[in-house]
């Protein structure tokens, strides 16, 4: 048994190692990312408190410069930006976190049941889609490699895509209990989800996942 003093020393040593880890982590992040990047600095203005402050009158010029594909109408974009600062409805949600704040703005409508911020929404949604790292893409490649193996090298792209979607939809569920939502089945590209669900359930009942079935060599699936 460790004495009280030895135990305290062990705890302190562990804390020091954790601190060293965080220091090194911050150092590596600073080396890999340019925090003075003008695009990153531009993206900061979409912080809820900055949006409602009204300190920035126009975002058109930099939006066109950095994200030309996301800007369809400069004048309307600037109008919507200024409107967001003046809107009482937007002011009332300024304390929400970034995602909740913008999700509510995306859904705001006027008295004619039209979206209040369609152009601003396109820009912000595009910015929110920017990947913070390549980790997500690398995970998808790893999943793809598990699906399309040397034995199953004749799987076509649509089949691989369907298997990836099925795996994603089943997250947090058992293949025996997952029930596809009605709206989900109506989505384009997911029409066969119901059939796929029953096939996966059937295969699981025999102790096999659908994604591990060998592929016939003579024909593409």
From TrEMBL:
<dbReference type="Pfam" id="PF05699">
    <property type="entry name" value="Dimer_Tnp_hAT"/>
</dbReference>
<dbReference type="GO" id="GO:0046983">
    <property type="term" value="F:protein dimerization activity"/>
</dbReference>
<protein>
    <submittedName>
        <fullName>Uncharacterized protein LOC115881941</fullName>
    </submittedName>
</protein>
<feature type="domain" description="HAT C-terminal dimerisation">
    <location>
        <begin position="91"/>
        <end position="167"/>
    </location>
</feature>
<dbReference type="InterPro" id="IPR012337">
    <property type="entry name" value="RNaseH-like_sf"/>
</dbReference>
<dbReference type="InterPro" id="IPR008906">
    <property type="entry name" value="HATC_C_dom"/>
</dbReference>
């Amino acid at each position: 048994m460790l004495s009280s003093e030895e135990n305290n020393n062990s705890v302190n040593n562990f804390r020091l190692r954790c601190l060293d880890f965080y220091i090194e982590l911050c150092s590596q992040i600073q080396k890999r990312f340019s925090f003075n990047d003008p695009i990153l600095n531009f993206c900061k203005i979409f912080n809820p408190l900055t949006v409602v402050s009204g300190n920035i009158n126009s975002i058109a010029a930099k939006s066109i410069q950095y994200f030309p594909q996301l800007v369809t109408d400069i004048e309307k974009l600037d109008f919507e930006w200024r409107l967001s600062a003046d809107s009482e409805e937007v002011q009332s949600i300024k304390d929400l976190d970034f995602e909740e704040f913008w999700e509510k703005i995306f859904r705001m409508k006027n008295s004619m049941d039209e979206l209040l911020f369609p152009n601003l929404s396109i820009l912000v949604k595009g910015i929110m889609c920017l990947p913070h790292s390549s980790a997500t893409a690398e995970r998808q490649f790893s999943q793809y490699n598990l699906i399309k193996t040397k034995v199953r090298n004749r799987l076509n792209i649509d089949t691989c895509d369907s298997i990836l979607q099925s795996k994603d939809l089943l997250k947090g569920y058992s293949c025996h209990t997952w029930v596809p939502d009605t709206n989900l089945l109506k989505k384009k590209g997911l029409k066969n989800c119901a059939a796929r669900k029953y096939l996966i359930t059937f295969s699981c009942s025999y102790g096999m996942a659908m994604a591990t079935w060998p592929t016939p060599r003579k024909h593409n699936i």
